[in-house]
Structures are given as structure tokens and as C-alpha cells.
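Lab notebook page, bench 4
Experiment: in silico fold of construct C2
Operator: M.H.
Input chain length: 479 residues
Purpose: comparison with the prior construct
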Amino acid sequence: MQANKRTAPTTVDGTDCNAQGLLIPELIDRPVAVDFEAGYVSSDGGALLLARLDRSLGYVRRFSQCFTDHRDPELIEHSVEELLRQRVYGLALGYEDLNDHERLKADPLLAACCGKSDVLGERRVREQDRGKALAGKSTLNRLELTPAEANASHRYKKVVGDEAALEDFFIEEYVRSLPKRTRRIVLDFDATDDPLHGHQEGRFFHGYYRHYCYLPLYVFAGHRPVMARLRAASGEAASGAVEALAKIVGAIRRKLPHVKIVVRADSGFCRDELMSWCEENGVFYLLGIARNQVLERELKGALEVAREAAQAREDQTARVFREFGYKAKKWPGAQRRVIGKAEWTAKGRNPRFIITNLSGEAQALYEREYCARGDMENRIKEQQLDLFADRTSTGSFRANQLRLWLSTLGYLLIDRLRQIGLKGTEWARASCGTIRLQLFKIGALVKVRVRRVLLSLSSAYPRRELFGQLSRRLAFGPT
């Protein structure tokens, strides 16, 4: 027996594979052997947490009810709910592209998370599909590309999403989550650019961002997404904001008729139409307002005071707040309350203005109320960087809107895990990307048995106690 005899390395794709496998002797004082006999291994062991939370909250189940399935029931292998779970969980796990699902469709762990009882795909109808429990890229692509007018007579694309219902889904889920004791709600509005690199429908060049893009409208209430509406960049930031606000406020007041609602946004939303609607409907607003000569003239004296105070300070920074009435020429009606921040720094003057119908001390309204809206920008970054909300690369506007909603639903799931499962832990304020890395991307050995699917995680996993705690917290029953 020649125990020390070395064999030629095999290639990763299995070519020239032999019983001994790979030998890598240079690492430590004895060779490290590598083979490909581990069976089913997943890099997404924490996906179970995501699936458990979704079953408890029922998000994807209710989201799927916004679709009409015109397919022949006898020929369906993947229900709409299963397809949506696969797509949304994939985004949450870091798989942004439909091509990724050509590999994921053979993952028994993801299949179990999506609700497939045949996790190995052994009972698939077509022989070429056996061993692949989940849908491939083509099936998922048809789901996204189905036109609004599709019906049973269409050859391939037969699953139609109701765009109005899909947009309302996020509003309804937010309202559903509101406790009856809620006394005050702050709705943050913001627009951002979604760069385009092809010739997508609705593509326009935006002068401010200096590239072709979409201009989606986001509405958040704290961490909760309330609206994610894709828009062409041909309009301004506030386009459609009044309509969106009316829809959201109407839904909130059907449940909480006396709750105080505050709308918060930057100067791109400072429009008379929006402020007038708020004033007529008992809604409060706190908006940035762009600088102009009239506003700066009102703040001239305060800036002098701030300059003198800054010169006496070590950090050379001082703020003075002043409030006054203001009415633009094109605004009908009375003056509105403007709060000016006269700030002087080492770099010079830095005046800023907000306009509001809220009562309260000027400095507190600016520093504690208005400046807090900056956190919404972090939520948008999470959606775009961690949930791929800017992956609007398909040709039709309708399909890109659906992709934005799928990313928003993925974000909603992770955020609820953060708020429910991670509350009181060091990860309670972690970003979606950090949560994915620390809790979802866990190597796992998957063993499929007749009576159960066994998932074996690493004995060296450093967050095993947190994982167990999360599993218990998230299993609170379907809603």
C-alpha cells in the first residue's frame, strides 16, 4: 500500500475525477484532500429564517393574490406563489439576476423554503427537468414580462399582475401593521435616480443626474416602505406626489381616522399643489424650500449674528434660527411659515430653509424633525445596493416596475426580520447587506430523507445562539 503516493489533481468540473480527488499539500504539515462527495451543500443556510418569517407574516401569499393565473391548472408545476417566493427570496439572498436561477433551481434548500414538497425535483413531468425542483430563468422571465392584456389564449405569458393592486399591497401592509394606539405618523417622500444603460421603455435623459434614468418615487414611514412607484425621468421629483399622498392618507384614515399625519420631503416637493392639499385635508407638512433672493434677504441679519458667534468659537461654526411668513408670487392665498437656518462655518455662509404648517419651536422643528428625514436616504440605498432595486434592465416599463416591487418586498421581509427577530440585539440596526452576510450566507449540508429534510450547519458558526433565538422569535404563526 502506497499511502503517500500523489495523484494528479482533478479539475473542478469533474474531468479526470478519481477516488482520491484533489491533494493540496502545500498548506500545512500534511496534505489537504478535496473531493466532491459532500452531496447537497448550500451557501444559504440562513434562508430558513427568511422563509419562516414570510410564513408567519404571509407577505408573499398576499402579494401573489394580486396576480391572475390564466395557465391550465393541469399543466402547472410552479404556482404563482412559489415563483414569487423563489424570486423574492433570491433577491434577499443576493441573487440579482434571473440567470442565477439556472443554478438555484437545483438547490433543495431553496426549494424547501419556497414550499416545494419534492425538493429534489424527482417527480417533474419532463425528464430533462428532473433533479431541478425550482423554476429556471425562462419561466421567471415570463412571469415578469406578461403584458397587462394577456389571457388564456396567449401562448407563454399568462400570469398577469394587477398593477393597482400591487402598488396598494405595500400601503395595505403598512396600515395593517399600525397599532390602534398610534397617534402620529410621519411619511417621508423622496425621489432618486435609477440609471439606465439600454433603451428601456420610458427612458429619458435627466439634466440634474446627467444620464438616462428612471425617477422612482419612494414613500417610507420610518423603516417601512409604503410606496415604490417607478416613473419616467421626464417629470419632476414631485410628479404624482399629491395622488400618492391622497391614496396613502385615505388608507390610513380608514383605520385610524384621527391620527396626526406629517409629510416630510426635500425642496423638490415644495409645491403649492401639495401644500394646499395638505392644508385642505388636515395633513401637516415639513418641506425643504430652495433658496432665493427673498428668503436670503430675510435671513441677512441672522447670518451676521451667526458669523460673529462663529468667530468666537473654536470650531468656527454657529447657527441662528429665524422664522417669518413667506408667499411666492405664484402661490394663491396667505403666507406660510418659513424657518431659516443661518449657519456660518469655516467655509463661510450656509443658509437653509424649510416651510411648514406645524407649530413648535423653530430650532427643534429643523434639527429634530426635518433633519431626521435623512435616514430615508439610507433605506433607499439599502434597496438599491442590497436588494437590487435599480436592476431595471428589461425592455418594458411594466416589467421594470414589477422588478422594483419584488425588490421592495425583499427589503420588507429583511426589515421585518430586523425589527422583530433582531430587536434588542447588536444587529438591530444592521443594514440588509450585513444581515445577509452574517445570517443568511451560512454554509449548510442538506440531507434529504423520506420523513424530513436535515440541514447541518457548521459547528464553528459564531452566531449559532442568535440563529436559534431568531428561529424561536419568528415562529409566531401565520397572519
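Observations: Residues 179 and 256 are 9 Å apart (CA to CA). The chain has two domains: 47-158+397-474, 164-386.
Next step: discuss at group meeting.
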